[in-house]
Amino acid sequence: MTKRLTCTITHAPQRLIAGLQTRATIGPCAAIHELWHQFCSNVGAKQSYGVCYDFMDGVYTYLAGLDVKVGEPLPDGWVSIAVPEQSFAVFEHNGDLSTISNTWSAIVDSDDGIKSIEGEAWDHSAPTLEVFPSNFKNGGCPVTIWIPLVPKAT
């Protein structure tokens, strides 16, 4: 039996996220795993983000990062991205990270995913977020997936 997705809508302020980035393909991607390994070796237990943006032909940029202040000096090799103030559809992924692509597929394709939100649509021009709590342990606590929203065209 497939678990139904649940979604909450939340409005989030603008934030600046900085970290390491790579280009990735849709679906399971070894480059993202390697990126997190590199990122986590330099960062303590803090809330962190997987930021997905710049989608083109099944390839996108993935940034493993954390909140920073504007003007804060960044470590060598780090980049930053501004995530605008926006409403988001927030979905929960429970279980091992090796299965997070299944949750993403359900968000995109299932009837209780992004298509179920009345009056709103995915804003493909804005970054999507995977939010990892500061106490994250693989499979030990949920990761939330934040999909940026815009009003549906009528």
Automatic annotation (TrEMBL):
It comes from the Eukaryota. Signal peptide: none annotated. It holds the Pfam family Cass2. SUPFAM superfamilies: Probable bacterial effector-binding domain (SSF55136). Gene3D superfamilies: Regulatory factor, effector binding domain (3.20.80.10). InterPro entries: AraC_E-bd, Cass2, Reg_factor_effector_dom_sf, YobU-like_regulator. Residues 5-150 form the AraC effector-binding domain. This is AraC effector-binding domain-containing protein. It comes from Aphanomyces invadans.
